[in-house]
Amino acid sequence: MTTTSLSLTELLAALGAPERVTALKGIRRGIERECLRITPEGTLSQTDHPKSLGSALTHANITTDYSESLLEFITPATDSIESLIEQLGDIHRHTIHHLGDERIWPLSMPCFVGDEESIRLAQYGSSNIGRMKTLYRQGLKNRYGSLMQVIAGVHFNFSMPDSFWCEWQDLVGEGCCSQRFISDKYMGLIRNVYRFGWLVPYLFGASPAICDSFLKGRKSSLPFQKTGKGTLYLPYATALRLSDLGYTNSAQAGLKISHDNLPAYVSSLRRAINTHDPEFAKIGVKVNGEYRQLNDNVLQLENELYAPIRPKRTPRSGEKPSDALEQRGIEYIELRTVDVNPFTPFGIEVDQIRFFDLFLVWCLLRPSPVLTDEEVARNRRNQNKVVLEGRRPGLELEDEQGNPIGLKEFGLKLFDELDQVAELLDRCCGRNRYRETLAMHREKLLNPELTYSARLLKQLLESGQDNGCFGDELASRYREQMLAGELEYWDEAYFAGEARDSLAKQRERERGDSLSFDDFLADYFGTRQTTV
Asked: Less Cβ around it within 10 Å: N or C end of the chain?
């Protein structure tokens, strides 16, 4: 039997057999939640990352992203949804106790931002790797501006257990423990996310409005309407964070990163990293002794690829992500199209996680042929329509054959397939939680007013509030809740130890550098000239 001979229904039936179904237990998940630190007045914090939280360079759970004020909370991978939420909650609770009177901004699109120069680059100390991380962000600023870099999202990390892979490989005659098989199937998952990923911003997009300070007086081609004193919105938008205003592939549309298989992906990614870009060359790399970017290539590093989903392998110390993928295959995938959920203090809730389980297992098991150029363009059109006008009555997308189809009709067809996966996961877990989750989100297809974006916009319009006032109120409420809450998974001794150890690790790295920064970069990018 070969993998291509099994339809989704047949594969689900085979995996659902009593002797196989328990192999699905142990799905592992991790969360990376980004959030801005803001002042009590609702403006971007100008303070340093609190030293009492530890080192942003080496802390396991609390770091920063682009800006010094853009926190990133990272949970370890776990196979328990309940533990995952407890860990994420504890990181929030611990952090808020070390922010003084600052708050955590509860929306994806940023608060009021004054001059772009007020967006401070994240600092990681004086070690070569720390300086490289800051320089990479300097390059992003010079290439794209700083505003895009203070948009926040939630990244959902996902992997299937070894027991599942063994059963699937045995089922199709592939033996066991083949990393090539695992990587091939994860790449198929990624292709299906490109096909059907518009469901994520439709259901969970929560950025239909922006502060007008985000445009900085620039004209936009989008037909914005205005509410309050300074809020711009699109009446049917779901996730402006994923539009051309935010993190999109518009600046990288010509890269043509291949998702045919892992070797093709790594090869095309490396090509982008090593391809000279004339526009970025105009910025300069090192001018008058000061670096402006890491290099003048299309991508400075792998992380500069703004993709909705990425294959991942945890790199070893000093190892490039692409080298880790090439040498050891895909370990997990990272879904990156999730807005911060403003209706929960932690930016994501349990029912979302269960839906992502369902959606990603379905994308994994569903047949996933190689994407054609025509299909790539069609998928991009569907995504753009949904983020800008996903709740518009009668909105039409394009189906897999390129035919017009109503969003609701398309979504309900996909939910019929998702229901089969929910049944399988419920049979594995012995409960009906996945089917209950699916039923809840199906209602959002039937009634768009139940989506996060509709709920948020309704509140703004009915109250006449700016999104800044709305965000400030939530930030203050959540701050009080977190200050009053108790740690659930870890204790203070854990966080105190992690802060202490992370600062010691940073000092050790700073003492251990033996190369100049120039030689360190040359070594990293393989351009250092050696003498014999």
From this structure: C
DSSP secondary structure letter of residue 481: H
Strand blocks (E) in 6-149: 28-38, 62-64, 70-74, 103-104
* Secondary structure of residue 250 in the 3-state scheme: helix
By the 8 A CB rule, do 329 and 187 touch? no
DSSP state of 115: S
The pLDDT value recorded for residue 389 is 98
* Cα separation, 467 vs 141, whole angstroms: 25
Measure the CA–CA gap between 239 and 244, rounded to whole angstroms. Answer: 11
Using a 10 angstrom Cβ sphere, with 0-12 exposed, 13-18 middle and 19 or more buried, the burial of residue 137 is buried
407-455 per-position pLDDT tens digit: 999 999 999 999 999 999 999 988 899 999 999 999 999 999 999 999 9
DSSP 239: B
> What DSSP string runs through 132-167?
HHHHHHHHHHHHH-SGGGG---EEEEEE--HHHHHH
pLDDT tens-digit map of 246-287: 654 455 667 889 999 999 999 999 999 999 999 999 999 999
Q: What are phi and psi of 143, to 5 degrees?
A: -85, -45
Phi, then psi, of 506 in degrees rounded to 5: -65, -45
Q: How many CB atoms lie within 10 A of CB 525?
A: 16
Q: Which residues pair with 43 in a beta bridge?
A: 112
Amino acid at 361: V
Domains, the chain: 8-525 (3.30.590.20)
Model pLDDT, residue 251: 55
Q: Rounded to whole angstroms, what are the CA distances from 106 to 70, 429, 460, 478?
A: 12, 33, 15, 9
3-state secondary structure 389-424: HCCCCCCEEECCCCCEEEHHHHHHHHHHHHHHHHHH
Is 324 a residue whose pLDDT tops 90? yes
Question: Is the pLDDT at 3 greater than 50, yes or no?
Answer: no
Tokens of 36: 């801005």
Q: If DSSP codes are grouped into helix, strand and coil, which group holds residue 286?
A: strand
Determine the Cα–Cα distance for residues 434 and 27; give it in Å rounded to an integer.
14
**By CB neighbour count within 10 A (0-12 exposed, 13-18 middle, 19+ buried), where does 444 fall?**
buried
> What pLDDT is stored for residue 451 in this prediction?
98
Q: Which stretches does DSSP call E strand in 257-331?
A: 286-287, 290-291, 309-312
